[in-house]
Amino acid sequence: MKGPLRVAVLGAGTVGREVVRAILERPESLRLADGPGVVLAGVAVRDLGRAIAGGIPESLLTDAPAHLVAAPETDVIVELMGGDEPARTLIAAALANGTSVVTANKHVMAHHGPALEAIARRTGAALRFEASVGGGIPVLGPIAHELAANRIDAVRGIVNGTTNFILSAMASDGRAYGDVLADAQRAGYAEADPRGDVEGDDAANKLVVLARQAFGRWLSVGSIGRAPSLASGELGLPGITGVTIEDIAAAAARGFAIKLVAQAVRAQNGVAAAVVPSAVTLASALGRTDGVLNRIEVDGVPVGRVAFAGPGAGGAATSSAVLGDIIAIARGAGSSWAGRSATTSLEDALDLAADETFDAPSGARYPVIR
Ligand code: HSE
Fold it and tell me: Of 218, 197, 110, 207, which Cα lies nearest the Cα of 155?
């Protein structure tokens, strides 16, 4: 049997500390019956004192992530810093060295996916990013593996836990938006800058990653529509920032829940995609997806519609996907795109038109999803 897989974790925040804890406290549960175990080679953090107070052994800690990336004895870099730089440069450097990477970073994958895929394919290093979509929900793996025989025609769903948590609380308790956002931040669901959640950027990033997996194309994030249209024909406010309590109540009276729905559909000349608050039938599975839960529905031929649901954010749930990717690397499973063909170019998403809208008191026209 080969020696243990030496894993360096960059970032010990909400997700990172759960991953570190699992590797330190239950390494046996990460060991394959016929493969190597997993050991921590190091943990890079910004605040050493806080990490030590949080229980990470001082001997493993560094504040220089580039040193862990450059160390020849590191087998896998687990990037959990989030954000753009330095995460992008560190991931690119690791892949360029031939070191495999596991990341939960939907921003980096959505904005730099084609370049990172090109480096990984050139060096043969594995790049895995299951945790970048749907927190703990397995969805990228099943699309690439068990659904590989299908032509995927559409992916849609609720992919941002923070906004779903806020919309659910606004609907059930009539609570103010800012008040619920603070709860989502305390629970570790929201991004460091929660504007990315509430304005739909985070969901758009995840939709780009889903579309790469489902359609074999990298879409440019900026081309994805993020606001409902208004009665005047203009666009409304991005993400859930324009959704009012009155809109939610009026929708409920018509049998709808307002949900931030990310949707990408195969079209004749490309992929049509949008992330907009939508009026979803209250009794449907999407309509009943509340709180931090996510739900992703995939339409494929010949399978029909399959759905993936579960906790879409939070440290413990997301660590499940990260640890699963580490074990996949130990198993020699390669990158998240599995055997799918190479995609290293970028294209714009097409507009996604709504067949039917719910015209709300605020003037917003929410696309109806039945
Ligand atoms: N801020 C993200 C969310 C975290 O709320 O869904 C998980 O990606």
Answer: 207
CATH of the domain at 361: 3.30.360.10
| CA 184 to centroid of ligand 1, rounded, Å | 10
Q: Could you confirm whether 206 is annotated as catalytic?
A: yes
Do 162 and 307 share a structural domain?
A: yes
Q: Which ligand 1 atom is nearest residue 194's CA?
A: 1
Q: What is d(CA 276, CA 159) in angstroms, rounded to the nearest whole number? A: 12
User: How would residue 35 be classed by pLDDT, with cut points 50, 70 and 90?
Assistant: confident
Best of 191, 198, 210 to mutate for ligand 1, by most ligand atoms within 8 A of CB?
191
Residues 104 and 162 in one domain: no
- Looking from the CA of 313 toward its CB, the CA atoms found within 13 Å total 25
- The model carries a pTM of 0.97
For 275-318, how does the pLDDT look when each residue is reduced to its tens digit (9 = 90+)?
Answer: 999 999 999 999 999 999 999 999 999 999 999 999 999 999 99
Three-class SS of 261-321? EEEEEEECCEEEEEEEEEEEECCCCCCCCCCCEEEEEEEEECCEEEEEEEECCCHHHHHHH
**Would you say 69 and 36 are in contact if contact means Cβ atoms under 8 Å apart?**
no
Q: Do 155 and 122 fall into the same domain?
A: no
Q: Are residues 152 and 38 in the same domain?
A: no
In short, whether 238's Cβ falls inside 6 Å of ligand 1 is no
